[in-house]
Amino acid sequence: MADTNSTLEIALITGGTENVNVQPFASAGSFNGNYVRVIGTQTLSSNFAIAPTGTAQKNMRVYILWEATATLSGNSVVIFGTTIRDEIFETVSTDTKFVAECTYDGSSWKVITSVDASGIGFIGTTALADDAVTTDKIADLNVTTAKINDLGVTTGKLAASAVTTAKIADLNVTTGKINDLAVTTGKIDDLGVTTAKIADSNVTTAKIADANVTTAKIADGDVTNAKLEDNANRYTRDIRISFLTAGEIGVLNFIMGEDCEIEQVSGTVMQPFATDAGTVIFKNNAGTVMTGSQIDFGTGLVLGNQVTNTVTGNNSFTRGQKVTLELSKTTAGSGIANISLLIKKV
After folding, report:
1. In the chain, at which end, N or C, are there fewer CB atoms within 10 A of the end residue's CB?
2. What is the rounded CA–CA span in Å between residue 159 and residue 3?
3. Do residues 56 and 106 lie in contact, with contact meaning Cβ atoms separated by under 8 Å?
């Protein structure tokens, strides 16, 4: 007949400590075995611990058979001084069964945990060695965004043209799943990445290797100003102005062809201002002077001299708005200049 004292049964509680007397033959009728079953279902409000009491003998072993269901809620399960990995309860399953083999080495308890292999999904993230999951182990369409560690898919793991549209669930390739510069042209079938396969705003500059986005890889009209490097968004517009006659001195208006900002104005002397200075004032569509923009061509400037100013305010335009140049000079008859506007598309 089985010894009823050989197995101790403990009901899981929401927190606190349950003691196991490991001293052999502590008292008549007490627990004198080396197996402990933990049962029940609880959501922990604090750490739950199973602790040894009594005098242990060297090489003594106690087996904790965990059959309970525990929701940790940020707390831990501690068995004989060892914290059980949260992954067993959270990443794998709240009702995962395991055995904690506790051995006393003469000074402290050593705990080895063995998870029940018959449970579904008992292997958690930390149980997998790096690079252990190969292509032939993964069924088509079974690698979703949630299954890929950020930056875990590198160029070397993708066969050329192997990632086709059918293998990618819509919007499941996010920026965080692609290693910087890891997706090269050779890894993408021509036209295989369609708009529906890419989550909005998830392809960033850091995710694309230099010179690997070719014309065939970009849908028509999908490259906006915001996706271009700053210098690619800048250009200059040159305007030739003259102060030779009174009819040329006054207000000039020019239409802006796109949403933009004027960052800098520059004037180059094409013919010196012999008699007196010439002035150019720049205004936005509302007629407000652009801060820091005024250019004064003094009589001391010679052919080729340049005056450059950085514009710091009132310099934003939407498509179709005008920029105004107001020319003034006391005496007409001398002075020609080329005005360059440094424009940034926005």
Report:
1. N
2. 62
3. no
pLDDT value for 180? 86
Instruction: Find the domain containing 72 and state its range.
Output: 4-115
Please tell me the pTM assigned to this model.
Answer: 0.39
Residues near 209 by Cβ (< 8 Å), separated by ≥ 6?
155, 181, 182, 183, 184
User: What sections of the chain are H helices per DSSP?
Assistant: 86-87
**Distance separating alpha carbons of residues 14 and 44, to the nearest angstrom:** 4
**Is pLDDT larger for residue 43 or for residue 152?**
43
Q: What is the 3-state secondary structure (H, E, C) of 64-120?
A: EEECCEEECCCCCEEECCEECCHHHHHHHCCCCCEEEEEEECCCCEEEEEEECCCCC
For 166-221, how does the pLDDT look when each residue is reduced to its tens digit (9 = 90+)? 878 888 878 887 888 887 888 788 887 788 878 888 878 888 888 888 888 888 86
d(CA 127, CA 176): 23
Beta strand 306-310 pairing with 260-271: antiparallel
* Paired tokens of 45: 């409000």
| Closest among 342, 264, 280, 335 to 303, alpha carbons compared | 335
Query: Which residue, of 169, 191, 223, is where some domain finishes?
Result: 223
Give the DSSP H/E element, type plus range, for residue 336: strand 336-345
Tell me which of 64, 88, 115 is where a domain ends.
115
193, part of any domain = yes
Our CA angle for 254, 259, 264, nearest 5°, is: 65
Pairing assessment for the beta strands 48-53 and 77-79 based on DSSP bridges: parallel
CA distance 336 to 326: 15
Tokens coding 154: 């590198």
pLDDT tens-digit readout, 290-316:
999 999 999 999 999 999 999 999 999
Residues with Cβ within 8 Å of residue 96, at least 6 apart in sequence:
88, 89, 115, 116, 119, 122
Q: Is residue 124 part of a domain?
A: no
The rounded distance, in Å, linking the Cα atoms of 217 and 187 is: 11
CA distance 290 to 283: 5
